[in-house]
Design a protein that fits this description.
It contains eleven helices and ten strands. The strands form three sheets. It has a four-stranded mixed β-sheet with strand order 1-4-5-8. A four-stranded antiparallel β-sheet has the order 2-3-7-6, with no helix packed on it. It has a two-stranded antiparallel sheet with strand order 9-10. Helix 1 runs parallel beside helix 4, helix 7 packs antiparallel against helix 8 and helix 7 runs parallel beside helix 9. The chain starts with 9 loop residues before the first helix and ends with a helix. It binds flavin-adenine dinucleotide.
């Protein structure tokens, strides 16, 4: 189904056309096979980088494309409809460039062009084995000695752990709580940095996650981003933007599931008619179409607040919560619409359903989004 989009510029229309063409050619034909083999598509990300899709919301002076966030998110949505793991990789990479782009010094930002053109791939290391939701309690420690930090601890569930070239590592340089946390930008080649074996996940298998162990890893002190003690603020600010990326992935995935279910329901005959003509199914699909449109509208409304320089973190939490719950519902029902055919690997809907689940968990579980929204209601 074609989505009718109102975009801010002609350039944005061209960008979305280019994205659709690339996604149809480079992503859609490969997704199922790479997912089955749990193979990370590094070359596909290089192709997207060469097309300028890995630095879309960042300034041109640093090698970005200076696109409004609302345009970047619609690019992600299109990619997610063809291959969620690639869209998620773009979203995580974009998130990983954020601390340096937003809080780095001019000297540190000299690294940005190679990051934004995708030559270097990023990872964002906040979660730890003993806790993801309570990020302010993290225990990975960095101790400064002259011009070096020595980092010790374990990060968990890190997307790109084994394939990243740089890692944003949130670590404790001070006392307990959020004010004791700092952000270090760590190179892959650092001695004492050990990515572990990939986890065996139920979906998103071509985007393997793993722990990253820091065993007295020595990081130059000039890789401290934003000053000692500002790491938690950086992490939360990055996640506000990242959550919109996850919401966009959810909308793209849900749209793909709906399109597939509608295509199937139009041609599948039972009792002498197309199953889409049974009201029980048609109403379900109508609800899905409505919920996807609502999720897209919520997401774009939050993005436009961000583009206007206005506070948007509560709206981002709402968009992430709503869009990912919609994706879970739509993909689960898409399996039902296909009946037995929905349960086999010949059709992509079972994969969509497995993939949707992770979106309710990453970048703050949906319970944590509710917590953020509820707290804002209690405060105002
Ligand atoms: C595929 C995948 C990729 C990931 N990629 C990354 C990455 O690149 N970088 C990174 O840093 N992390 C990443 N994560 C980690 C992810 O962000 C965490 O899994 C998530 O934040 C939850 O943390 P946790 O797993 O420790 O669960 P916990 O925090 O232990 O939560 C367990 C359950 O308790 C609930 N809960 C916790 N606190 C509350 C509360 N106050 N109120 C109500 N319910 C609560 C949670 O919602 C959840 O249902 C990834 C995870 C996965 C699965």
């Amino acid at each position: 189904m074609t989505v009718d989009r109102i975009l801010p510029t002609d350039e944005a229309h061209d960008l979305l056309d280019l994205t659709t063409e690339l996604a149809d050619r480079e992503l859609a034909p490969r997704a199922a096979q790479y997912e089955e083999r749990a193979e990370f598509p590094r070359e596909v990300l290089r192709t997207l980088g060469r097309a300028g899709l890995l630095g879309l919301p960042y300034p041109q002076e640093h090698g970005g494309a200076a696109q409004p966030y609302e345009v970047y998110l619609q690019v992600l949505e299109i990619l997610a409809g063809r291959w969620l793991a690639v869209a998620e990789a773009v979203s995580v990479h974009t998130l990983s460039c954020y601390p340096l782009a937003r809080f780095g010094t001019d000297e540190q930002r000299k690294l940005l062009p190679d990051m934004l053109d995708g030559e270097l791939l990023g990872a964002y290391c906040l979660s730890e084995p003993q806790g993801g939701s309570d990020a302010a309690a993290l225990t990975t420690r960095a101790v400064q000695d002259g011009d070096t930090y020595t980092v010790t601890g374990t990060k968990a569930w890190i997307t790109h752990a084994r394939v990243a070239d740089f890692y944003n590592v949130f670590c404790r340089t001070g006392g307990p709580g959020p004010k004791g946390i700092s952000c270090l930008l760590v190179d892959r080649a650092t001695d004492g940095l050990y990515p572990q074996t990939a986890e065996r996940t139920m979906g998103l298998r071509s985007s393997p996650v793993a722990q990253v162990v820091f065993d007295a890893a020595r990081v130059p002190a000039d890789r401290l981003i934003g000053g000692a003690g500002s790491g938690f603020t950086i992490a939360m600010s990055a996640l506000d933007a990242g959550r919109l990326g996850i919401a966009a992935c959810a909308v793209g995935l849900a749209q793909a599931a709906l399109d597939y279910a509608v295509g199937y329901a139009r041609q599948r005959q039972q009792f002498g008619r197309a199953i889409i003509d049974f009201q029980g199914l048609g109403f379900t699909l109508a609800d899905h179409a409505t919920q996807i449109s609502a999720a897209r509208a919520l997401l774009l409304s939050a993005a436009r607040l961000r583009d206007a320089g206005r506070p948007y973190s509560i709206e981002a939490a709402k968009a992430k919560l709503f869009a990912t719950d919609v994706a879970m519902r739509v993909t689960t029902d898409a399996v039902q619409v296909l009946g037995g055919a929905g349960y086999v690997l010949d059709h992509p809907v079972e994969r969509y359903m497995r993939e949707a689940k992770v979106l309710q968990i990453v970048e703050g579980t949906n319970q944590i989004q509710r917590l953020v929204i509820a707290r804002s209601l209690a405060r105002d």
